[in-house]
Amino acid sequence: MPDIYFIKDHSVEIRLFLGRIVAAIIVIFILTTGLIIRLIYLQIVGNEHYSSLAKDNSIKIVPLVPTRGMIYDRHGKVLAENTPSYSLEIIPEQVKNIDDTLLRLQKLLDISNEEVEQFQKLRKRQKRFASTPLLLGMSDEELAKFAVVRPYFSGVDIHRQLVRHYPYSDLAAHVIGYVGRINETELKQLPIAEYRGSSHIGKLGLEFSYENELHGKTGYAEIETNVQARLLNTLYELNPEPGANLYLSLDIDLQKTAYDAMAGFNGAVVAIDIKTGGVLVFVSRPGFDPNPFVIGIANEAYQALQSSVNQPLYNRALRGLYPPGSTIKPFVALAGLEYEAISAEQKLYCPGYYQLPRVIHKYRDWKKGGHGAVDLNQALTESCDVYFYRLAATLGIDNMYNFLKKFGFGEKSGIDLIGEKLGLLPSREWKREQKNQAWYPGETLIAGIGQGYLQVTPLQLAKATATLANQGKVVTPFLVDKTVRLRGERAVFNVGNDNIPLNPINVNTVIDGMINVVHGAHGTAKGINKNISYQIAGKTGTAQVMGIKQGAKYNENNIDFKFRDHALFISFAPANDPKIAVAVVVENGGHGGSVAAPIAGQVIKQFLRDNNEN
Amino acid sequence: MKIELRHEQFETPSVLGSFLRKLHIDIPLFIGLILISIISLLILYSAGSQDMDVIMRQISRISLAFVLMTVLAHIDPYQFKRFATLLFGLGVFLLIAVLIMGQIGKGAQRWLELGFFRFQPSEMIKITTPMMLAWYLAEYPLPPKSKQLFIAIILIAIPTLLIAKQPDLGTALLVASSGAGVLFFAGLSWRFLAVVIVALSSLTPIIWHFMHGYQRDRVLTFLNPEADPLGRGYHIIQSKIAIGSGGIYGKGWLGSTQSELEFLPESSTDFIFAVFAEEFGLAGCLGLLTLYLLIIARCLYIASQAQDTFNRLLASSLAFTFFVYVFVNIGMVIGVLPVVGVPLPLISYGGTSIVTLLAGFGILMSIHTHRNSQ
One of A249, A326, A413, A571 is an active-site residue; which one? Predict the structure, then answer.
């Protein structure tokens, strides 16, 4: 509010203001004169120059679209390629009666009303002289049919373009991903110059994660055209630079073995080359065919995929979250040895259940009646729960958290695919933050057998297994081994040198237990030890999907399929010189030993047979 | 440049004239705006490849904008003064809300979804910023002292920076100039203006440092459009060809042969002047500029006739901002200014800017038609 000192002199203010109006008029006058001078320069002085550029022969800059890079597996088999495809396109300006033409075309070829509608929508968005696609991916028969009557359809023509094709269809759809039409949101974020002329962009998997490498660099040509936009002469050309080819560590034959072995179930298989970290197998079941996504999947088909209870579009290997069950036990055992919470020889008695002091709740063992007195090796071999309840209680959640974290649980594995899930490695702090509750001792126990809050992805399980087999030298999984451009190739992945300091004696004690799982007389996965000259180390796991009431009995046959336990198996081989690590998760598969282990067994056997000479 | 418009025309009002005056409509301004709107529809028909949908949408937006203008013209300017702070505060609050929501939604966001339409707070702030400054400076004797100057600059900086962060450089520029306009008309000393200009030019490297990548690209492209013909220089090269080939008399309505403009995604919006210049030539451009200047002249005349300081400052600033609009857009299309996203006022396709502009003219009409008779 104005003080007493603020006395306004209106006549002074008005004079000041009018002065400013005059000043503004002068500024406006000068700036406008500037615009007019520039317009005179462009439209009178430069008229001849610009007219020659624009009038009869105009120079057009046309983008030259680069070919998208191919994707190969480790043996050079093609996983993603560009195949020619033919489409029927119409230039509306050159068609006299468009509705009539469309009707005649519909009579001749099998064109659905939906496709006609799509065409009409596209047509409205484009200039009248722009070629607009009506029918995509024409068959040979359709091509022949149209070729005969072509002279009667002016303004209608067949165009050839390269379309992305995935020869292995659903086999590795989640890893390779797919390309699709650039949508409006993407268009706004893309560098316009780089994508001028491009119609597709990676949407999922490696196609998405390596979009920058695969796309290549758009070139352009300056061409002289006449009024009808007919090409007269090419003045200058900057060739496009094709996208880089990706060479994966993936072995598509091994992938097929794993995929087929998983038939009938939902789940995931991840296999890692321990020496390099290269991912050999990355299966997520059920799969889906990525090819329809390239030309634009029909709405109903997409809805069916989206709403399917089996969720085929979900990448279980990368994003599926599962309780690890007993597959966590080797890591907990190793933690026990490293933190000296237990020794290898020490025997603990298992009566079939475990009780915390002053708590009535009985933490049960999977084996009714118990395992008796077991040492660490037996506890792993027979997967004794009570042993691990007691070990977990001794270790405490803080030690378990710190130790498991080093193996990559609760963290991204660092794989070169976008969208990885973190999983969940619970800690006191986590529970305080997320649930605002204290950590209960009982939760430590069930964490010790891989239940409770603990959640892992199949990829994390495989990474942790490979790291264990590698004596604590951290294995970081990757898919793309190298990218190859016209000029030179580039190794994408550098092997990390993170190392978990571990006592080799302790590691070997745990590995011995895991060997017994497969080769011991009481091993839970002894079914897969036939006909091999080397040893496989493994651990089965069975993760509860449904809580079982105290005193109730789990009976597989009485339970709905979707509530049956998940079957898990982690393994590596050969045990004395580890080359391959495999993690298998079979949703609702029941027992790890009978369902999951054979799948891993097949993968290991095939890989070691094929790579025998190495 | 003439600003004297004859008074006699109001003394012998026709039937329509008296009706419009009852509506608090200023007739010369109204005629100018109608003419511009007609030009807009004609050129959009040509630039938008003769799509009637585009025209119908533009007509409905223009109609809505004229209704809003009439409503605002009815309100006594005293009410604008009364609610200036509240409206400004609300505008700033909404800008912050948009910014936060944009951060959650990852990516630039400029509007709030209000169910049936999208509301851009940055549009509202274009008017409330000069309103706020006019209210603040009118409380004190003019020219403003350094303390008021300091506060005024902060009041301008807040919305400007919030909008620049969206990022929307064009609108930020318009908001800043609407505030600066108020300061200028309030009698800011010439010496201070000189200091600001020197300071700003010495700040260039720092401003450069804070620019987004694409904003830097635009400046670089402005300096040398030929360096990147397929990407960022493309618009400017193509629009220069279109304008230059128009010559003195142009190629006639619907006669733009520059099929290159098919690549110009903004041929209906920010770059529509290129289409206009190609079809109507230098003669048409001079005509259009004259029409714009007449509208601005009428607005400055209204400002000079206003009866209190708040009204004077607000009216003159709105007039000046309108000129900045025209100058920046045409300047960028003919390649003398960098490409910032500013539409050609009242002509470019797109609803929000037209609504805001006509709201501004509504306020001008309110100021003019609510004067006490002497």
Answer: A326
Pairing of strands A279-285, A71-72: unpaired
CB distance B306 to B315 below 8 Å: yes
Residue with tokens 């449904």: A546
Mean pLDDT value of segment A283-304: 86
Do B339 and B222 contact (CB within 8 A), yes or no?
A: yes
Strand order in the sheet with A537-543: A279-285, A267-273, A580-586, A566-573, A537-543
Tokens standing for A204? 């999922």
How far is Cα B112 from Cα B107, in angstroms, rounded to an integer? 14
Per-position b or e across B245-273, b if 16+ CB within 10 A of its CB: bbbeebbeeeebbbbbbbbbebbbbbbbb
Nearest CB partner across the interface for B245, out of A21, A55, A229: A55
> Percent of chain A scored above 70 by pLDDT?
90
CB B100 within 8 A of CB B332: no
Give the bridge partners for A580, in sequence order. A273, A573
Band of residue B49 on the pLDDT scale cut at 50, 70, 90: low
Burial class, A381, CB count within 10 angstroms (exposed 0-12 / middle 13-18 / buried 19+): buried
Surface of A (120-139) touching B: CB under 8 A = 124, 127-130
Cα separation, A493 vs A420, whole angstroms: 18
CA dist., res. A581 & res. A466, Å (int)? 5
Q: Which of A8, A54, A196 sits opposite B242 (nearest CB)?
A: A54
ipTM above 0.95, yes or no: no
In the numeric block, which tokens belong to residue B207?
């401003």
B307 close contact with A: CB closer than 8 A: no
How many Å from the N-terminal Cα to the C-terminal Cα in chain A? 89
* A558 pLDDT tier (thresholds 50, 70, 90): low
Superfamily of domain A321-479+497-569: DD-peptidase/beta-lactamase superfamily (3.40.710.10)
Q: What phi, psi does A341 have (nearest 5°)?
A: -80, -15
Q: Can you tell me the distance from the alpha carbon of B245 to that of B260, in angstroms, rounded to the nearest whole number?
A: 12
Question: Which residues from chain A sit within 8 angstroms of residue B316, using beta carbons?
Answer: 17, 20-21, 24
Cβ atoms of residues A452 and A392 within 8 Å? no
Q: What is the pTM of this model?
A: 0.62
State how far the Cα of B79 lies from the Cα of B340, in Å rounded to an integer: 34
Tokens 């023509």 belong to residue? A157
Which DSSP state fits A194?
H
How many CB atoms lie under 10 A from the CB of residue B106? 7
pLDDT in tens, A445-488: 889 999 889 999 999 999 999 999 999 999 999 999 888 887 76
pLDDT of residue A362: 82
The helix (H) or strand (E) run that includes residue A299 is helix A299-307
Is pLDDT at A228 greater than 70 in this prediction? no
CATH class of the domain whose range is A62-246? alpha beta
For residue A326, indicate whether it is catalytic.
yes
Chain B nearest-CA distance from A180, in A, is 22
Mutate to test the interface with B, among A1, A9, A21 (most CBs of B within 10 A): A21
Among residues 237-256 of chain B, which lie with CB inside 8 Å of chain A? 240-248
Burial class of residue B128, CB neighbours in 10 A (0-12, 13-18, 19+): buried
The answer to whether A312 and A286 are in contact (CB under 8 A) is: yes
